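Interim report, section 4.2 (structural modelling).
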Amino acid sequence: NAGVTQTPKFRVLKTGQSMTLLCAQDMNHEYMYWYRQDPGMGLRLIHYSVGEGTTAKGEVPDGYNVSRLKKQNFLLGLESAAPSQTSVYFCASSYVAGGIVPDTQYFGPGTRLTVL
Amino acid sequence: GEDVEQSLFLSVREGDSSVINCTYTDSSSTYLYWYKQEPGAGLQLLTYIFSNMDMKQDQRLTVLLNKKDKHLSLRIADTQTGDSAIYFCAENDSGGYQKVTFGIGTKLQVIP
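Predicted structure of the assembly:
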């Protein structure tokens, strides 16, 4: 049971390049989330998904797209990277309500992205 | 919208107690959480409390909830150097999806 995994761990992009961050969970969780963490800003929700085939915007969705084609995977895409997207990106997943610890989110180890 | 506020930094000596405070604005919070983030890692759930509880104790950790003042605290007894981390307060507003609002995080530094 690997929990939540993220690939890649580190990436450096040039402005205008595109990339996809992959998140995978093996806990059969319904809900998945993408956050970015910036100094002094805490965690901000980019997009989330409440089930396979569904996605929704979070607090800071601009410049990102997501897809949830399979229940276990949640992809975050940057179509044209900008320096403002330099951040640490965390994926998380959670139980449907009624789990052992209600509504808790399980986090991946993060992807550190630098956009030059 | 919902807001969760924390102080940025706390420094304590090894063996002392640490108290990390958090205030929140959402009166409909169902659960409140404390997450711990060690350097270079993701967040891990440390403990949680239901909104209808006042206190929860779990080994060295004590969570106190004052619903009237919307104030949550985490007390770590006998703080160790391994407790050095960033601690995030979070609340769930019992919305239709599991929307959790995180605080900015409090960096705990434990001095040997």
